[in-house]
């Protein structure tokens, strides 16, 4: 009977050990997926930030150009009167 209890205890210990290893492996895999997802999100953020900055520069350039044209037309209109 003691031998049977030892066998059952050993089996229970091994089963619990397998479950813990599997849980650890799943947690490590989830961590890896989270790291990859974070890197992807950061890369996308950097890409969008660069696009935003480029749009800002283009907008500022266009506004400056339009202001220059408006000032020129205003000056020409004043000269013609």
From TrEMBL:
- InterPro entries named among the record's database cross-references: PIBF1
Tell me which GO cellular component terms the UniProt record holds: microtubule organizing center
Q: Does the keyword Cytoplasm apply?
A: no
Coiled-coil spans are 10-58
Keywords attached to this Swiss-Prot or TrEMBL record, sorted alphabetically, are:
Coiled coil
Q: Which GO terms describe its biological process?
A: cilium assembly
Q: Does the keyword Nucleotide-binding apply?
A: no
Q: What is this protein called?
A: Putative progesterone immunomodulatory binding factor 1
**What is the organism field in this record?**
Pipa carvalhoi
């Amino acid at each position: 009977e003691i031998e049977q209890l030892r066998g059952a205890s050993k089996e229970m210990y091994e089963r619990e050990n397998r479950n813990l290893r599997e849980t650890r492996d799943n947690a490590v895999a989830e961590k890896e997926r989270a790291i990859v997802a974070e890197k992807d999100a950061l890369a996308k953020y950097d890409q969008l930030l660069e696009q935003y900055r480029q749009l800002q520069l283009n907008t500022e350039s266009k506004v400056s150009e339009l202001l220059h044209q408006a000032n020129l037309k205003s000056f020409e209109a004043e000269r013609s009167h």
